[in-house]
Amino acid sequence: MRRGFTLVEVSILLVIFLIVALLVAPMSLDDTRQARNTSRWRNVQIEFSNIFYSPDLQKIENSSDFKTFFRKSIESEIREDIPHYKITFLNGMNPPEIYSFNNYKLTGADSVLAYKFMEKQAYGLQGLLMYDVNGKEGPNKWGNDVFGFNIYSDRLEPFCKKDSIETQKRDCSKNGTGLCCSNYYLIGGSFD
């Protein structure tokens, strides 16, 4: 005689599938969100790198002219100023002063950028730029949706570009700051 599954057996199977789905779904959603943010960051990196191909940049002779040129170059990206909001490192810590910004600007792509110039330049470094690819929408963490550039007079360079891949990978983890994700994801690093 042929017998089907009982209601209890089917219920147990459904509960098992539901538990597995609940465990796997958040991980895949986080990976999807991170992949989207990383893709946006790659596009931003390409767009901002084009600033330095301007013939006007070649005429600049001093730091104050460069600052003026840089501000004018990104003006077309900015829609409005927005209030300050909290951004943390991947490990949950608050960034030190050097990685904290005040002049948040909403871009035409609904992202947020902020930049600052150094009073004392070292090794050609003019300043820093922070870019939150999904705007004020969370999680607002370095390496997750917030990335950054070092501003030089001839290029923008993602944070940690000169660091070893192992250093970048280590910093781009739950225990790290997330600053190095700015370059690590651009060179194909994976998010764990």
**Alpha-carbon distance between the termini?**
51 Å
| Tally of separate helices | 5
Our estimate of the beta-strand percent is 15-25%
Strand tally: 6
Largest sheet: 6 strands, antiparallel
Query: Could you list the spans in which at least 5 consecutive residues all have pLDDT below 50?
Result: none
| Computed structural class | alpha+beta
Structural shape: elongated
> Helix proportion of residues, in percent?
25-40%
Tell me the count of domains: 1
- Radius of gyration equals 22 Å
Task: Give an account of the 3D structure.
A six-stranded antiparallel β-sheet has the order 1-2-3-4-5-6. It is elongated and about 90 Å long. The model has no long low-confidence stretch (mean pLDDT about 85). It has five helices and six strands; from the N terminus they run αααββββββαα. It has one domain. The relative contact order is 0.13. The protein is an alpha+beta fold and about 190 residues long. The protein has helices at about 5-50, 55-60, 65-75, 165-170, 180-185, and strands at about 80, 105, 110-115, 125-130, 145-150, 155-160.
